[in-house]
Design goal:
This protein has about 475 residues and is α/β, with parallel strands linked by helices. The protein has 16 helices and 21 strands. The two termini are about 20 Å apart.
């Protein structure tokens, strides 16, 4: 098995720069643990080709590879301009109309009645990722009369953001539902849900997915932060989508919001992903800026589960180099923070499972334990171990291939798909697999945690085994 020598996972987005077997394999060998399929771009045939390549690489390298399917979500955009792009000057009047009439430098079509329902006088509207800002002067059922407060050039179909308002728009569109049916047919373990505003968005998606995949809630709306606890509780993992979040939230607030989200996830043991612009400069440059390097390292000091590359690996000039550089940063930073794990605040150990996984972490701190082995059907035992951030890698033994792929998102976890033969001692099985995969050797100590009987969802057994 390919052992990374680090705990934090790397998610790499696939795209035009990484859509062949050779390029995807290069990203995997450079350090990618999970591949993101962005359903805002491409078609089902292209995504299916990438899925088949990933599964081929799994077989070739003998290691599960995770896949994250990212749904597009609703896109709020203006209409078109009759004479091409227009220039908006500061202080001028500019109106948004529900009527589908081609625009000019005084008005444009806004085909979203939901915005007219929630708009209020004094509200700010952001166009083109915040490059242009309008302030609402008056509201009617068909016209929002605005004043330009930040000027610029505006062209067709640019996006609209409404900071501070809860938009009565579902997180899933008809396109998303078609994409979701395709995704579920491929048995992909993780689905990222865009435009999450409240727990209801998660619950609706869950009712459709019906346990066939896990949900990553993308936090990109300020409204989601107001409902953070409920969203974290309902989700299986969280993605901090800093690009879209940074459009609607003042830039100075994004770092503290990021840390708040990470703390909420760490307290509950839910995997947390930091995404967007982590190494934006490497879209065109072979090396990152020092600020980008520090950004990644700070996420690791906060003990996140994953960091993600977007355009850097999907469409940039240096996709393999971006993954390799991220791997190097993670590897170096984790060496520095081994002694820092003790400062993590743990939630109360109120259950037997909590107590056992906390004990396993303490043992790895004081003994030279080479690995924690978790026997898991659903992945719950492995997530419980990862929540404590132990000082040894976690090797998850599972009979379920989808669970093995799912755990590629889990901090510190390596998955091995095995047949659990009840006639063979679990100790013997674990020892043989660890030796075979070079996690441990004769004379090393390992910890085995599991739920007995095997299908039991909670951890109730801990054993220390010395390898003969």
């Amino acid at each position: 098995m390919l052992i990374r020598g680090r705990n934090t996972k790397i998610i790499a987005t696939l795209g035009p720069a990484s859509s062949t077997l050779e390029s995807i394999e290069a990203l995997f060998l450079a350090g990618a643990d999970v591949f993101r399929l962005n359903f805002s771009h491409g078609d089902h045939a292209g995504h299916l080709n990438n899925i088949e390549i990933i599964h081929t690489l799994e077989e070739k390298h003998g290691r599960p590879i995770g896949i994250l399917a990212d749904l597009q979500g609703p896109k709020i955009r203006i209409g078109t301009f009759e004479g091409g792009p227009v220039t908006l000057d500061k202080g001028q009047n500019f109106d948004l109309h529900l009527d589908p009439i081609p625009g000019d430098n005084t008005r444009v079509h806004l085909p979203h009645p939901e915005i007219f329902h929630v708009a209020t006088v004094g509200m700010d509207l952001l166009l083109d990722d915040g490059k242009i800002r309008l302030k609402v002067r008056s509201v009617s059922s068909t016209v929002l009369s605005c004043t330009v407060t930040i000027p610029g050039v505006l062209s067709n179909k640019k996006g609209v953001n409404v900071p501070g308002a809860h938009l009565p728009i579902p997180a899933m569109t008809e396109k998303d539902e078609r994409d979701l049916a395709f995704i579920l047919a491929q048995d992909i373990p993780w689905i990222a849900l865009s435009f999450v505003q409240t727990r209801d968005d998660i619950d609706h998606a869950k009712s459709i997915i019906n346990g066939k995949a896990k949900i990553v809630a993308k936090l990109e709306k300020p409204q989601a932060i107001k409902h953070l606890s409920a969203i974290v509780d309902a989700s299986d993992a969280i993605m901090i989508a800093r690009g879209d979040l940074g459009v609607e939230v003042p830039p100075e607030e994004v770092p503290s919001i990021q840390k708040r989200i990470i703390r909420a996830c760490r307290a509950t043991g839910k995997p947390v992903i930091v995404a967007t612009q982590m190494m934006e400069s490497m879209i065109a440059s072979p090396t990152p800026t020092r600020a980008e390097t520090s950004d990644i390292a700070n996420a690791i000091y906060d003990h996140v589960d994953c960091v993600m590359l977007s355009a850097e690996s999907a469409s940039g000039a240096y996709p393999r180099e971006s993954v390799a550089m991220m791997h190097r940063i993670l590897h170096h930073t984790e060496k520095d923070i081994v002694s820092d794990y003790h400062v993590i605040k743990h939630s109360a150990h109120t259950t037997l499972s909590d107590a056992i996984t906390a004990a396993a972490r303490e043992i790895t701190q004081h003994l030279n334990v080479k690995a924690i082995v978790t026997l898991t059907a659903s992945g719950a035992t492995t997530y419980a171990a990862a929540k404590e951030r132990p000082y040894a890698p976690i090797v998850a033994l599972t009979q379920n291939k989808r669970t093995a792929r799912e755990l590629c998102l889990c901090w510190g976890a390596y998955s091995i798909v095995v047949d659990i033969d009840k006639s063979v001692s679990i100790d013997i099985l674990a020892v043989n697999l660890l030796k075979e995969n070079k996690f441990a050797h004769a004379g090393d100590k390992i910890i085995i945690t599991s739920g007995i009987p095997f299908q039991k969802e909670s951890t109730n057994v801990l054993k220390i085994v010395e390898i003969a």
